[in-house]
Each structure stands twice: as structure tokens, then as C-alpha cells.
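It is worth pausing here to work through a concrete case rather than discussing structure prediction in the abstract. The textbook approach is simple: state the sequence, then state the predicted structure, then interpret. We follow exactly that order.
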Amino acid sequence: MRSSVYTIESDIDAGYCSYPSVPYWNNTNKAGNQKDWELLLKKNYDQNEPNQSVSLYIHLPFCEGKCAFCCFNAYITKNHSVEEPYINHVIKEWKLYVQLLGKKPLIKQLHLGGGSPTFFSAENLKRLLLEIYSNSEIHPNATLTFEVQVNSTTTEHLIELGKLGFTSITIGVQDFDALVQKSINQIQTFEEVKTIMKSAKSIGYQSVCFDLLFGLPHQSRKTIIDTIYKIRELKPERISLNEYIHSPAKNPAQQSYEKDLPLEPEKKMFLKIYKNMLVESGYIDIGMNQFVQKTDMLYSAYKTNSLHRNMMGYSSQSTSITIGLGVSAISDAGYATVQNERTVKAYYLSIDKNKLPVVNGYFLSEEDFILRKHILNLQCTFKTSWDKSEGENKLLQKSISRIKKFEKCNWLKISDNSIKIRKEGRDYIRNICSIFDSRIGKIQNTTIPSSYNEVLLGVNNKNK
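Step two, the predicted structure:
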């Protein structure tokens, strides 16, 4: 059977950066209620003053071409007149947040995502960021990063953003094989990627991350190994490895290569090859298929158990508030997660009315808050614990009963008030957390993926 369509397991990575996972948001639970969101955000911010800091994500959704693997909210156009009005509205949205918070926020993390941030001219990005900076304070150790689309990124982009404090870039490599790239409509040669990296390093960028996908059409053992050899030559500081999500209902272009997708056993082999060869190449697996060199700041955070995780992935910076600006951006304030309007027209309309463009979201219950805390602990430190008070202990028992079966696989160890993921279980953090989750777990508890059953069956037969 070919790669399955979008599944619950496939949503884990995004879901646990914004617990509960977006498909499980309950729209009757104050979701999209702008006033409730504003009150909760302001309360969280004020309670942590004077040292409160925020993470900021800015969604820049425009691209000149659509990559077939992409399921993100992107607008395809070659009309660059869209740049100025979009930036004007993002600036105004940020000013609405600054007005709500009552003072200039301290930014500890800032990420430009897309779409293709470098669809926008260097001059327009500079104008956007200078307006953001004029209405905020930038932490001296802030992490500033942006996503690079090789074919639209110029030396001017790298220079101007470098002057503005950016020290990290993420390049969407996916795979270096020419046929794979042609299939997914993302053509960029090894030499072009190498040139971008060389320019970034010469300007002073400290960290380069490659986004890679496995399970793409026409991928094979040979293409995977060739990609890893090229990675060894370029030596990016970080690798983010994720499974390709086949969702032709969301992206019809994916229908064109359905027959060329690898089989499930092949995908498992690709993942194993990637993991083994990246580790052999000197990368450290810090969890969730994220690999870093020992010189990278994420490695230091990993070694000191100070990794943090939010909608932008792993970070060495920890904040209790993440503000998302732009179309479909997600914001998080601890007890609530909300999403902006998903169309440019609706987003503009809300901003023009001086309203935050919140349209969807979830306000966490006490149970949600506790479960999220433990899920993030497991993802960032491979362990979590709690006091033996009746309330929290009782609340966790149902989740613990669902993952207890994995003790037989030697994936984890459960005690009276703690869970520790063993080395053998670190490849399955997503799976463990998905079943620990009270929502996803209720479904997966009765339909455990076959790969789990194979492992469990082997363990049970061995113990007979």
C-alpha cells in the first residue's frame, strides 16, 4: 500500500507545539473570542513582569511558485505589489499587541516563516523589522532566524537581515536529487545551496539549518545516501528531518506523483538510514528527529536540560508567550492558543477595523494545561515527574495506562510519579506523546499503528 493520506500520527509535530493539536480544537470553548484572548494574554504578561519576554513569529505567506510537498498556508503570485500592503498590516497588528500589553515587549525569539520570507525585497523586510524593533526591546541573547528559499534569496537579503541581528537561517533542502526536486517542484542545485551557505557564513551567520523530508516521490536508498554525503560536505549546524505528508485533498498537485511514492517499509528504511548516517557524521539527535552539531547552541541547551519547544520547534530560549503575526499565524499564551484569519482579505479587514484578527483557537482546561506540561517535558528532556498529590496523579493515570504497554518494548520506564523515555524509545517520542495525549490517545488506543503491534508482538513472544 502506498503512503497513506494525512493521518493523526502525521500531525504530532505541529500539534504538540500548540497543544491541543489544531484538528482537536473545540470551537465552542471560547475559540476565536478576541476579548477572552486579550484578557488572558494581558493577565499572563502582567503576572510575569518585569522580566516577561515573548517569542515572535511572523508569517509571510507569498511564494512565486508552489512546492508540491507544501501544506502550509501560502499564496502563489509573481505580483510583488502585494508586499507593501501586507507589511503595513503586519506592522499595525504588532502595534495592536503593543497597545494591549501596555509597554514595549522584550523579544527573546523572532522567526520569519512562510511562504517564502525572501519573496519580499530586502528593503521591505528591513522596513518591517525596523517598525517591529521601534515598538519593542530586543533581548541581548535573542535568537533571530528566517527561512530561506534559495531561488529568491539574494546577498542583499543576507546582508540587511544580518545587520538587523539575524544570525540563523533555515534552508528548505528536502532532497538534493534532481528527479525528486522536479517531482515536488522545488528545483535548487547543490551548488546553489552551497553558495547561499558560503555567503551567509562570510557575512557572519552562526547557524544554518537544513529542512529535510523523507517519503518523497522517487526517493530511494541511493538518493537518501547521496543527500547525506552532500550534507557532510556542507556541514550545516542543524538538520530538521520530517516525514512527507501526502494530502492531495489539501494540495491537488500531489496527485501527479502518487504512483511514485515509496512504500511504508521503504520509508522506515529511509528514516533509519538518515538517523544512522547523521549520527555517524557527528550530529546529535536531540529528539523529534532534530539533529545538531556540538557547536550549536541547541546542543548546549540539550545538555543542560534547558531546551524549550513552541510553534517554531526547539529553541534555546524559553518564553511563556508566543505571538504570531500575519495570515493564519498561531499565538500561545499558556492557557490559550489562537489562530489568525486564514485569508488575506479577512486578515486585512480585521486589522483595518483595529481588531486582532483572531478567528480560531482553544482555551485550555486545567487538565489540558497539565498534560501539555508533561508532553513538552518528554519532548525536551525525555522525562517528566509530578508530586503524588491525588489531583494530578489521578488525572494522569488514564494517559499512563495507555503508554504503559511500551514498557514491554523497553521504550520507557514508569514509576509512581515519573516517566523516563529510555534511549531505545527516543526514536518514538512522537508516538509515545500521541498516545499520552488524552484526545489523540483515545483514538489510537483502539487503533494502535501496525508498527507498534509488530514490536509488542515480538516482545510478547520473546517473554513466553
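Step three, interpretation. The longest strand covers residues 137-148. Confidence is low (pLDDT under 50) at residues 1-17, 443-464.
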